[in-house]
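Field: COMPLEX_INPUT
Field: COMPONENT_COUNT = two
Field: RESIDUE_TOTAL = 574
Field: MODE = joint
Values follow.
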Amino acid sequence: MNINNLSIKDAILGITTRRFTSEELIGEHFKIIEEKNSEINALLAVNKESALRQAREIDQQIKDGKDAGVLCGVPVTIKDNILIEGAVCTAGSKLLKNYVAAYDATVIKKLKNAGAIIVGKANMDEFAMGSSNETSAFGAVKNPRDKDRVAGGSSGGSAASVAAGMAMGSLGSDTGGSIRLPAGFCGIVGMKPTYGRVSRFGLISMASSLDQIGPFGKTTADAEAIYEIIKGEDIYDSTSRNMRDNRIEIDNPSAITIGIPQEFFSSEGMDVETETAINEVMRDFRRAGIKIKEISLPYSKYALSVYYIIMFAEVSTNLARFDGIRYARGENNSDNLLDIYMSTRGDGFGEEVKRRILLGTFVLSSGHYDAYYAKAQKVRRLIQEDFLRAFNDVDLIMSPISPTLPFKFGEKTSDPIQMYLSDIFTMPVNLAGLPAISIPVKGRENKLPVGFQLISKHWHDASLFQMGKFYEQL
Amino acid sequence: MSGKITKEDIIRLSKLARINLQGEEDKILEDAWRILAYFEELQEVDIHNASKASSATAIINVASEDKINQDLSQKGIGHFAILENGCLKIPGVMHNINKE
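Field: COMPLEX_OUTPUT
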C-alpha cells in the first residue's frame, strides 16, 4: 500500500469499496509515526490502540453496509490547543503538562461524527505564541523537508505531521499566520477560514478577536474536505455564523482579477528565491488568462505593530485563567492564594509567554491604554478598510506567505522583532478577519518549499479552495 | 508615546500579572525596549476619522435562553486543579484574625 500520494478522496473510496481496510490505512500511518516522530517531534501524544480500534469499527460498519461517515477512516492530527475529552491538552506549555480536557471541542465532535480517526496531538509553540515552534516546552519541531530548519509556527507539529506522512490532514489554529506559515514552510496546504466560519469552542484561546481554527492537507482538495466538516455555526461560540459559501466563477479565468499589494513586494528583507517563486506563480496565473493587477494596502505597513499590541492585550487577559486553581497546579502547595498564582505562572510559563503577558498588561494599563491599545484598534479599522476597498477592484489578493525561506534553528530566537516579521504578510488578514490559504509553489520538490497566499473576501472561503485546485492543475 | 519602560515597571507589571519572575527581568526589559520602540511607528498615523475596531467581522447580538446544561456543568468541574467531593478546593481567602 503506497500512501505517499493518496488523496483523502481516494482513501475514503478505497475503504468504502473495500479495496483496502481502514485498519491497514491507519497501520501504514503509524509505521511512519514510529519511524519518524522521535526525530521530527511533530506529535506530543499518540493513541495507536484507540485509533486501530476505531478503524476496525469503521471496517465492520462498511462490511455491514452502514454509513461510516464522510471522512471515514481518514487519519488526522490535532494541534495540542484543541480539546479532546479525556486526552491531555498541553498547548505546548509546561503549565498544562498534566491537564486532561473535560470535553470535546466542537470541531473534534464534528470530525469524530464524520468518522475521521485522530492519531495524535501535534506539537506547537507554547500557547500558540511563536513562528518557529521553538517556544514549545516539549522541544522544537523539525522541518521534514530539511531537518536543520524550523517547521514554522505555531502549528508546526500539525504541518510537519502531514508533510512527513504521519496523517492525511490536521487541524491547527491561526492567530496571525500560525496555520499558513508552517504550511508554507513544510510545503503543504493550510487554510485560515473567515473569522466566525469555524467554531472556536474548545480551542485554548490566545487572542480571541484573531484566533481561528483551520485545516491542513497535502493538497487543496484534502484541506477542503476537512474544512467542509468543521465549518458552521455553533451555539457555544457566539462569534460563529452560518453563512452561505460564496465562490467565484472559475470556468472563465479571464473574468478573474488577482490583486498584488505593492507594499508587500517592496518590503525590506524579502528573500530573492521567494520573490522569484512568487513571480512564477503570477506568470502561471497570467498564462491561464487571469488578470493580475497591482493594488495598494497603505496601512498594512503598520500591521505588525497593530497586531502585536492587540494580541498582547488579549493574551494578557485570556491567560489570566491559568492561575493554578483551575486547569492545573504547579509544585506549590502553599496555603496562600497569591503564592499559588505567582508561582504556578512563574514556573509554568516560558519566556515568550511571560513577555507577551507583561507587555499586554502594560498596553492596557492606565496611562498607556490610549497611546497603545485604543490607537491600535483605530489603525486596525484602517487596515480592514484597505482590504474592503481593494476588493472593489479585485476578486482575490495574492502575496508570499513569508518574506524568507524556512530558517535554521536559533537563527531568529534572540531578536523578537525578526521573529515577528516572519508573519508580516499573514497577520493583516487576521486583523481584517478575512479567509486566506497557503499553497505550495509547484516544482520545488527538491528545494526548500515556498508558499504563496491567496486572500479572499469575508465568507468567500470556497473561492480559495477553487483557486487552489485550479493552480494545482495548471 | 511615553517615557521609556524601566525595570521597576517590569517588576510592577509582573505583580499585576501574577507572575513570579525568576531572573528574567533584564532580558524582558531589553526586549520590551525594542518592541515598544518598534510600536512608535504608529505615532505617524492620522487616526482622526477612524473608529475603533474591536472585532474582525461585524458583531451581532447573540442571545439565548438560560438553560442549565447538567452534562456541561459536570464536565466543567473537570477543569479544577484540586477537586474534593465535587467541589473546587482553594486555600482560604479570609483569615480569622483572632487566631493570628
